[in-house]
Amino acid sequence: VQYKSWDPSMDGFIQQSEFLGAGGLLAFIRTNFRSKARAVPDIRQDKGAWFEYFDEDRSGELSIEEVTRGLIKSYRLSSDLDQVEALRDIISCVWCVFDEDGSGEVDRDEFLTPNIGMADSIIANFPR
């Protein structure tokens, strides 16, 4: 349905003018997809900003996948698939400690609770 507005010529291809034009695919992408060009917030400086940055679906909660990506990007960890899976497994093992309500995700309060929340635990266990 949306494709028709990006290909008004209906030739099955999106021409440069259709891509760049007002209401084109580029405008759609810029409007609907958040830019990741901004720097990753330093969790030590602003825990709330880190939470917001990695809450990619804007649910108000962090999933295991979002936390895994956050740790990899924040600490420049390896993107090697085996190491990523190992990190995800470790996070899964301790997840219930932080997911106090058992929702399957860590909400903002669970993340920011002083001393025992996920943010302070990340800071304590991932030195610079």
From TrEMBL:
<dbReference type="GO" id="GO:0005509">
    <property type="term" value="F:calcium ion binding"/>
</dbReference>
<feature type="domain" description="EF-hand">
    <location>
        <begin position="42"/>
        <end position="77"/>
    </location>
</feature>
<dbReference type="InterPro" id="IPR002048">
    <property type="entry name" value="EF_hand_dom"/>
</dbReference>
<keyword id="KW-0106">Calcium</keyword>
<dbReference type="InterPro" id="IPR018247">
    <property type="entry name" value="EF_Hand_1_Ca_BS"/>
</dbReference>
<dbReference type="InterPro" id="IPR011992">
    <property type="entry name" value="EF-hand-dom_pair"/>
</dbReference>
<feature type="domain" description="EF-hand">
    <location>
        <begin position="86"/>
        <end position="121"/>
    </location>
</feature>
<protein>
    <recommendedName>
        <fullName>EF-hand domain-containing protein</fullName>
    </recommendedName>
</protein>
<dbReference type="Pfam" id="PF13499">
    <property type="entry name" value="EF-hand_7"/>
</dbReference>
